[in-house]
Amino acid sequence: MNTIEQMTRTHPKDPEGVGEKVRACIEACGECAQACTLCADACLGEEGVADLVACVRSDLDCADLCETTHRLLSRRTARDDALLKTVLEACAQACRRCGDECERHAGHHEHCRVCAEVCRRCEDACRDLLAAL
Questions:
Q1: How many Cβ atoms from other residues are within 10 Å of residue 59's Cβ?
Q2: What H or E segment, with its residue span, contains residue 73?
Q3: With contact defined as beta carbons under 8 Å apart, do 26 and 2 qualify?
Q4: How much is the pLDDT for 123?
Q5: What domains sit in the chain, N to C, each tagged with a CATH number?
Q6: CB-CB contact of 6 with 68 (8 Å)
Q7: pLDDT (tens digit, 9 = 90+) per residue, 75-128?
Q8: In this structure, are residues 109 and 81 in contact, taking their beta carbons and an 8 Å threshold?
Q9: Which PANTHER family does the annotation name (predicted)?
Q10: CA distance 59 to 35
């Protein structure tokens, strides 16, 4: 059992019983933020960096939204569900767009292929939690 799982299972504020979906989304957002940051950095190291400008931008935008979502999901007490739903939707959209952009480069850059997969998992986790709220 990892730390995030321990914390979400023992948190007293889970009235809807969605703790498992919250945990999965927190983990997916954290992983996606890291993957997108790493992908952006790897893109900047590629010889054809000029062709990857949109990918870098998409990676960084997605990383920022994932990090924000990660933090908001970690605050369970007296949460603002309307804000949380808005942020989850924005994160899911950023992940979809970043995944699409990275897929365009996946045939030439392994880091983009991996990033696209992570973005898809995060988008799914955000949408699963949205459906449960």
A1: 30
A2: helix 53-74
A3: no
A4: 98
A5: 18-132 (1.20.1270.360)
A6: no
A7: 876 677 899 999 999 999 999 999 999 999 999 999 999 999 999 999 999 999
A8: no
A9: CYTOPLASMIC PROTEIN (PTHR37310:SF1), CYTOPLASMIC PROTEIN-RELATED (PTHR37310)
A10: 8
CA distance 98 to 20: 25
- Could you give the CA distance from residue 100 to residue 83 in angstroms, rounded to a whole number? 26
The answer to whether the beta carbons of residues 69 and 25 sit under 8 Å apart is yes
**Token digits of residue 114:** 């991996």
d(CA 119, CA 45): 21
Q: Are 121 and 28 in contact (CB under 8 A)?
A: yes
The pair of three-digit structure tokens given for residue 19, joined into one six-digit string? 């703790």
Question: Would you give the DSSP letter of residue 75?
Answer: -
Torsion of CA 45, 51, 57, 60, to 10 degrees: -30
- Between CA 74 and CA 76 the distance in angstroms is 6
User: Is 59 in contact with 115 (CB distance < 8 Å)?
Assistant: yes
